[in-house]
Structure formats: C-alpha cells, structure tokens
Amino acid sequence: MLAVLLLHHWREQRAVVSWLAQTSRQYLQMKWPLLDVPAGATLKDSRSPSPAHLSNKVPVVQHPHHVHPLTPLLTYSNDRFSPGSPPAHLSPEIDPKTGIPRPPHPSELSPYYPLSPGAVGQIPHPLGWLVPQQGQPVYSIPAGGFRHPYPALAMNASMSSLMSSRFSPHMVPPPAHGLHPSGIPHPTIVSPIVKQEPAQPSVSPGGNAKSPVTVKKEEEKKPHIKKPLNAFMLYMKEMRAKVVAECTLKESAAINQILGRRWHSLSREEQAKYYELARKERQLHSQLYPTWSARDNYGKKKKRKREKLAQQQTQDTESSLVSKSKKPCVQYLPVEKPCDSPASSHGSMLDSPATPSAALASPAAPAATHSEQAQPLSLTTKPEARAQLALHSAAFLSSKASSSSSSSGLSSPSPLLSRPIPFPSVPPTALLTSPPSFPTALPSPQAALAVLQA
DNA sequence: GGACCTTTGAAGGCG
DNA sequence: CGCCTTCAAAGGTCC
C-alpha cells in the first residue's frame, strides 16, 4: 500500500515536473521570442538539483559568443525584481548621501550567484544558466548569446567553487593562477593568465626585473579584462534581441538609440533592478580582479573618437560646414518609431512616472539628468546633422558634455525641427515637464519607414 | 580587419 | 568637486 502511494506520488511529481518544463519553456519563448530554447533545456530536472547534469544537455561546442560568466550568475529574477514586488533591495542599499547604491552585504549576493560546482569546466552555455534556479526565472539572454566580458573568468574550478560558496567575500581569493593549467582545449578556456593575480608567479611582483621585451610580451599575453557592465549595458543586453525582433533592425546604433529612450521610459523600479545587477556585477568584478582598474583598458581600443570629437569641435569653432564624415546619412531614430510603439511588451513606458522628478530622482539613476539633456542632441546622430547643428548652435553640440548647457539646450529651438525630416523626439520642453512619451509622439511606422527610405 | 556609429553608466585623471 | 575622456555591448557600415 505504501509502495502504491509512493508510486502515485512519484508519478504526480513527474507530471508536475513535465508541466513545469513545458510552461517554463513557453514562458521563456514568450519573453524572449528570439531565444532558442531547446526542449528539455529549460527546466532543470528537479531530481537533479545540481547543474552538473546539464553538461549532458549542453552541446559542447563553441558558442559564437562567449557567455558572460557573471551574467548567468546574475539571475535576473522576475520574482525578485517584479515591479509588483516591493523593491526592498533598493532602499536600504541606496546611499542617502550620494544616491549611489551601496555595495551589498555579502549575504545579499547569494541569490544572484547560484552557480554550483557542477559548472566546473563546463561551457557556460546560455541555456545552462537559463535554467531557473530555485524556481526563479533567470536573467535573459540575447538571441546571439553573450560575449565573454571576462575571458579569464571562463568557468573553472576555483571560479565555480567561488560561486558555489555563495560568493562570500572572505572566501573569494584572487583567481587562482592558471584557470585551466591542464590545457584542456576547451573553446571557452581562454588565457589563464590574469593580469592582476597576485599569486601569479610570472608577474614576479617581488621585483624580479624583466626586460621590457618580456614585459611587453606578457602584456600582450594578458587577457583583456573587460569592464563590468553598467546598468544600461545590462539592460541593452537583455532588451536588444527584443527590440531587434520588434523592429527588424540590426544596426546597433539605431537599436541603442531605441534602447536609450526605452531606458528613460523605464520606471524607477525597473531601472533599479538593472542598477542592482550592475552593482553586483561590479562588486563581483572587483572581487575577482581586485587590482584591476578601468584604466587598464585605456588605450586597448584604438578609438579615434577623441580625434573625431576634437575635429568636430574644431569644426564647430571654425563654423566649418565641411562634413568629413565617413558614414552616410543614416536616420537611425525614425526607425525607432515603430519599435517604440506601445506594442512593446515592456509596458514600462506607459508606467513611467508622471513627472521627471519621479524618474530622475531615483537614487539608482544618478546620471538621468545628464542623459535627458543629452537626448535631444543625441537624436542627431548624423555627422551631417551635427554640422547642421553647428550652424544653428554650437552649444547644442557641446551640451552633452556640458552639464551647464541644459538650460540653453532645452530652451533653444530644437535643431531637430530644422531638419528636413524632424525626428519625432520628445520635445525639448517636454523634457522639462514629463518623461518621454514616445508612443503618442511618434508618427506611424509606415511614415517612419518612408522617411528612412527617402 | 578594424574603426565608427549609438546609447548610458562607471571610473579615472586633471585642473 | 566638476569636467572630460575612455570603455563596456552590439552589429551594420565604411575605409
């Protein structure tokens, strides 16, 4: 009799598990349409709590994009961050003085870094960490997967044990030298040498003088430890695929503009969760790379933006009309119109605070003012348009970098209005009174497309 | 192949 | 302290 009952109970559990797997997969596909969620990879088998079993389900192939080693740890829990749920994690962590979210207590990290030792040596497949942990929906992934911001963080024993240890700071030693000294030709295993590792013998901090050539070679060998993603970057990562799906756009410049506006239309709570994620990511990054500095990456990108900016400033000062832009006139933002429509499932735009102060006063959004000021200007992305702006007002061109130009930028006649095809941006005056309300201000998508094609 | 475009935020440097 | 610069992601575009 007992055996019959147990069998029946077991069958019920199996049925529940099966149902959960199906519904979870449907949920994921609904939330992230572009997300290719293979059946069976969505829900972790409840009978096998350890993710180790995923190794059998995750194809051991190199993903085109490396997976963020931290992102899977940052379980983007809708349960936790649901707008309906009180953002209790926010208020106590916001520094009332600076308005900047304070570093969390070590214990706060536990829900966000649920990676278990089962991931040791495993490819951090997107769907691997997509499996809800502890019944939580997890952080979304873009259609193309994530790149690997921290190459040296490719899952290894020390890393995974670090994560499995709930990331208690006192248990976080510097990353062990040689993430995979075994030399396993695993695609995700990158150069194990971490720049700042104090225990790294090759660094020889003891003062073992090395020739400049050797130092230079070692410098080249050092993996590029990327900056931790900020809140907006995390938001972009999550929403990019969605925007691309909605807009059939692929150009990141346009997508980013859309995302930038959507970012501002997010409610305080919704932004707060990304700030929270970013804060945790920064903390994790700082703990993994204690000696890493953002300065280390300076110069890694051979950007000529500075030169271009300087050139542009020179042009502005000289009122030069010559456009030396390499790119043709690209109307990014008109394309946004169909995408920023209320059709967005985000819904946050409609839930935006009634007043900018409500949104901008968010302690989690310290740079909102700057962003809003920059928004009107940023709408003119074309160098030609910038040249036009230079004709109208040089102050506009520098308004993004100058916080004192807000009044002039908002009070001056919008250069956008002088453009042949005015972008349906938020009127500058609207910026003073209310957050962007794109759906009502945007013309029809057809008109936008026509404008774009014109 | 690499820089550029675009977005916001973080961080470092400088005056 | 404020301002400026750089970098983080991403993919099309251009050189």
Automatic annotation (TrEMBL):
Q: Which domain of life is it from?
A: Eukaryota
The protein's matches in SMART domains, at most eight in alphabetical order, are given as:
HMG
Mind listing the GO molecular function terms for this protein?
DNA-binding transcription factor activity, RNA polymerase II-specific; RNA polymerase II cis-regulatory region sequence-specific DNA binding
Q: Name one Pfam family in it.
A: CTNNB1_binding
Biased composition (Polar residues) is annotated at 310-323
Q: Lyase: present as a keyword of the record?
A: no
Give the location in the cell.
Answer: Nucleus
Residue ranges with Low complexity bias: 352-371, 400-420
SUPFAM superfamilies, alphabetized: HMG-box (SSF47095)
Membrane-spanning residues: none
An annotated GO cellular component of this protein is: chromatin
Residues of the region (Disordered) are 72-113, 197-222, 293-323, 338-379, 400-443
| Protein keywords | Activator, DNA-binding, Nucleus, Repressor, Transcription, Transcription regulation, Wnt signaling pathway
Q: Which residues form a coiled coil?
A: none
Q: At which residues is the DNA-binding region annotated?
A: 225-293
Give every HMG box domain span.
225-293
Family label? Belongs to the TCF/LEF family.
**Descriptive protein name:** Transcription factor 7-like 1
Q: Please report the organism this UniProt entry assigns to the protein.
A: Alligator sinensis (Chinese alligator)
